[in-house]
């Protein structure tokens, strides 16, 4: 990779919107800039380079980008006398040069496969007069960003993409149009990366893909995600998580691998999107309500203590009250411990954007509120089962509100708060695994006291 001399000593700030894949891409952006001699800072106002890594799954993400990027116009001039604003990720891939229609100060636009070209784009922008944006949204012939240097946010956790793109074309989703079709990394490259991470002290990895259950199909002719889980576990990594998981491709072989591999955490995020078979068909989700619930039953038979979370869209075009009641009943039957709930966001360029819908906004909001209340009720109930018991927690750091309270996540992906043990510092415990006796079980977190020694 070329390291332009113009970037040495420049300060940079990266702001990330959206999914875990964007978080991973941001770490690669930071790693590339570090290698160029740039210096990371915590405040965009003082940065020579401000990078926005974008998401276009929902309209709100667009608006956040437009507002925050445009605010750079009135931000104080950095000590160097020139600031370059770069916009990457999915919105950049989708809009290219047209981003300037909303963000006039955009100097660099780089797509989802163009992180390696960022240094040259930035150097050209610094050399120019700002009258046009330097743009690279070419996808063909690009290698995985995993081959680039990384500036990880955590010393003990790492994002590990195993594939990019998606072949499913759900009618509401823009991802296949901005991330392309499914492309898997070789199993050997994924395993080798995890081996390097283990040697570097990483204790938990999250395997990433738009649909990890179809991993390997384009390379091997059939999905091999179950085999990948077992081989990643063989590296000695202590905790394995993965996302996202499409129900239509979650095989019994993968369920067995999850149940038989201790390093795979007992938590699965399995997006259902709707409890109505009619709406699922309109969404092109390729499974029915009954098939989803049958899959949940097989998962719970194999892993009785599995924590199950999901995504649900409210207000998809044409959703009736009966459809919504089907969603509520599915949520109750599936027993989700948490759920991300969204009001449908119309995305130009997707089939659903042209579907007629005359449902009043207040009806959609009422449904959303009702669903959110049910999800909170079930989350609270699920956490009660852990009251008085021990949970194993990977310590992530101090609470933002109280530096005497530490925060981490349990094996079931619950947020856990606990007081700093006497005689210990936060620095000593971050990255360790501790057993916490749960003394309080709230809706969205557990609280307790450490027992025994950290490990």
Structural class: alpha/beta
Number of helical regions:
14
**What sort of overall outline do the alpha carbons produce when their principal axes are compared?**
globular
Major sheet characteristics: 6 strands, parallel
Mean pLDDT: 92
Share of helix among residues? 25-40%
| Poorly predicted runs | none
Spatially, the strands of the biggest sheet line up as 2-1-3-4-5-6
Distance between the termini: 39 Å
Secondary structure tally: strands = 19
Strand content: 15-25%
Gyration radius, to the nearest Å? 23 Å
Structure description:
- This protein has helices at residues 20-35, 59-70, 90-95, 118-127, 175-179, 187-199, 217-220, 225-233, 252-260, 277-283, 289-302, 321-334, 361-384, 426-429, and strands at 11-16, 39-40, 49-54, 84-89, 106-110, 134-136, 157-161, 163-164, 183-184, 204-208, 239-243, 267-269, 307-314, 338-343, 390-398, 405-410, 415-419, 433-441, 446-451.
- The chain has 455 residues and is an alpha/beta fold.
- It is globular, with a radius of gyration of 23 Å.
- It starts with 10 loop residues before the first strand and ends with a strand.
Give a quick rundown of the structure.
With 455 residues, this protein is an alpha/beta fold. Helix content is 32%, strand content 22%.
Task: Draw up the topology in text.
Layout: E1 11-16, H1 20-35, E2 39-40, E3 49-54, H2 59-70, E4 84-89, H3 90-95, E5 106-110, H4 118-127, E6 134-136, E7 157-161, E8 163-164, H5 175-179, E9 183-184, H6 187-199, E10 204-208, H7 217-220, H8 225-233, E11 239-243, H9 252-260, E12 267-269, H10 277-283, H11 289-302, E13 307-314, H12 321-334, E14 338-343, H13 361-384, E15 390-398, E16 405-410, E17 415-419, H14 426-429, E18 433-441, E19 446-451
Parallel strand pairs: 1-2, 1-3, 3-4, 4-5, 5-6, 7-10, 10-11, 12-13, 13-14, 17-19
Antiparallel strand pairs: 8-9, 15-16, 15-18, 16-17, 18-19
């Amino acid at each position: 990779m070329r390291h332009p001399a113009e970037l040495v000593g420049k300060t940079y700030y990266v702001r990330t919107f959206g999914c875990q894949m964007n978080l991973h891409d941001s770490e690669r952006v930071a790693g590339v800039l570090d290698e160029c001699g740039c210096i990371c800072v915590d405040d965009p106002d003082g940065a020579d380079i401000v990078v926005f890594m974008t998401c276009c799954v929902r309209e709100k993400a667009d608006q956040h980008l437009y507002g925050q990027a445009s605010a750079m116009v009135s931000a104080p001039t950095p000590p160097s006398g020139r600031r370059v604003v770069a916009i990457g990720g999915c919105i950049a891939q989708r809009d290219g040069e047209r981003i300037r229609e909303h963000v006039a100060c955009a100097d660099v636009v780089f797509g989802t496969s163009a992180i390696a070209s960022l240094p040259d784009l930035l150097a050209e922008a610094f050399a120019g007069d700002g009258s046009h944006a330097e743009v690279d949204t070419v996808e063909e012939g690009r290698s995985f960003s995993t081959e680039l240097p990384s500036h990880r946010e955590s010393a003990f956790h790492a994002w590990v993409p195993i594939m990019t793109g998606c072949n499913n074309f759900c009618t509401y989703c823009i991802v296949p149009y901005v991330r392309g079709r499914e492309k898997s990394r070789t199993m050997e490259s994924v395993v080798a990366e995890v081996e390097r991470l283990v040697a570097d002290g990483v204790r938990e990895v999250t395997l990433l893909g738009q649909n990890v259950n179809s991993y390997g199909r384009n390379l091997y002719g059939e999905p091999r995600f179950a085999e990948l889980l077992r081989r990643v576990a063989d590296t000695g990594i202590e905790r394995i998580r993965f996302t996202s998981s499409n129900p239509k491709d979650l095989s019994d072989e993968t369920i067995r691998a999850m149940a038989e591999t201790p390093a795979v955490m007992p938590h699965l995020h399995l997006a259902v999107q709707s409890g109505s078979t009619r709406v699922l068909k309109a969404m092109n989700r390729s499974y029915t309500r009954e098939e989803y619930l049958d899959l949940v039953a097989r998962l719970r038979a194999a892993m009785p203590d599995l924590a199950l979370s999901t995504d649900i869209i409210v207000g998809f075009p044409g959703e009736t009250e009966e459809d919504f009641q089907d969603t509520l009943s599915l949520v109750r039957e599936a027993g989700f411990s948490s759920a991300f709930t969204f009001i449908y966001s119309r995305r130009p360029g997707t089939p659903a954007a042209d579907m007629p819908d005359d449902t009043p906004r207040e009806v959609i909001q009422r449904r959303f509120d009702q669903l959110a209340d049910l999800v909170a009720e079930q989350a609270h109930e699920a956490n009660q089962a852990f009251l008085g018991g021990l949970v194993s927690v990977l310590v992530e750091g101090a609470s933002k509100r109280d530096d005497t309270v530490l925060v981490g996540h349990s094996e079931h992906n619950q947020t856990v708060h606990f007081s700093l043990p006497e005689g210990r510092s936060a620095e000593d415990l971050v990255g360790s695994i501790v057993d916490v006796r749960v003394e309080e079980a709230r809706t969205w977190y557990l609280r307790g006291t450490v027992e025994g020694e950290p490990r």
